[in-house]
């Protein structure tokens, strides 16, 4: 069973520092909202579902140690810390979903004494961890139904246990198929430049789970597809919009094009918290632009000339026409997504 990615112990908050993997397994305790902002921005905690939970826990840390005399003072801290944390990363909609949920919950409990109010915020953040585990297991169950024993899956970036509280989104299908259904599944993991989440994280967690994994460079995907070595592509999503366009780690769009050409199904694992019905198409999704040093350097060592122009978007958008199906905790949906995705939210108590 995968290890938890972030958790609480008697009100204390802990995360795995993912920037240290795979060479070191380091647990970091979060002592302040500023530290949580930095952890999210620097990718010490990453993956859309995990970022959402981290945001909620960041608000908890902010009020936990606040020297506030009244609940009204705590409400101000909730609002300010939520606004602050929301600025850490702009693309993953789970962060905004979780922070809005925390703020709404805070207003609903504004009549409580300060100590009781604090307890309700912690309880909600911990509930989000429990819910995420339930959601990911459901994603795994539905996703596994798309796999047969002997299949080989190609994945990009890390949409496994490290991207969530514990069980993963896209890789939940692999874990469920292997552990619960005893299917033989192998994985090809793209390295995922520029920060190598596939090489550093996906291969690490699959190896820990005893699942056969082969690391490939990003530019090898077409070759393994042409050779007939890939039966399906499974990826996660940081934001999927009403028409089914999918924002995910840069390079996902190219994989979808390749999969379409080679007749390989392209599946997206999307918790409802990653679906944003307020946007009609992927053109409206804000795409995070990251530091040039992520491209010009590897592990602190320069690999490109100085003063070179760098384009470094963290995500790209895959058009819905290239998406075979979207796997959610409420079931698998197919086109037309503009109809099938909104229908899911009639079943969701948190929509």
Note down, in words, how this protein is organized.
By secondary structure, this protein is an alpha/beta fold. The protein has two domains: 6-136, translation initiation factor eif-2b, domain 1 (Four Helix Bundle (Hemerythrin (Met), subunit A), Up-down Bundle), CATH 1.20.120.420; 140-347, Rossmann fold. Helices cover 39% and strands 17% of the residues. The protein contains eleven helices and 16 strands. It has helices spanning 33-41, 48-64, 71-86, 93-108, 114-144, 172-179, 197-208, 221-226, 252-262, 293-296, 337-344, and strands at 6-9, 12-16, 27-30, 152-155, 186-190, 213-216, 232-235, 239-241, 246-249, 266-269, 275-276, 297-298, 301-302, 315-318, 325-328, 331-333. Strands 6-5-4-7-10-15-16 form a seven-stranded mixed sheet, with helices on both faces. A four-stranded mixed sheet has the order 11-8-9-14, covered by helices on one side. The chain has a three-stranded antiparallel sheet with strand order 1-2-3. β1 and β2 (12-16) form a beta hairpin. It is globular and about 65 Å long.
Termini separation comes to 30 Å
Let me know the average pLDDT: 96
CATH class category name of the largest domain: Alpha Beta
- The count of helical stretches stands at 11
The helix-and-strand class reads alpha/beta
Shape: globular
Order of strands, widest sheet: 6-5-4-7-10-15-16
How many domains make up the coordinates?
2
Largest sheet: 7 strands, mixed
Low-confidence stretches: none
CATH architecture of the largest domain: 3-Layer(aba) Sandwich
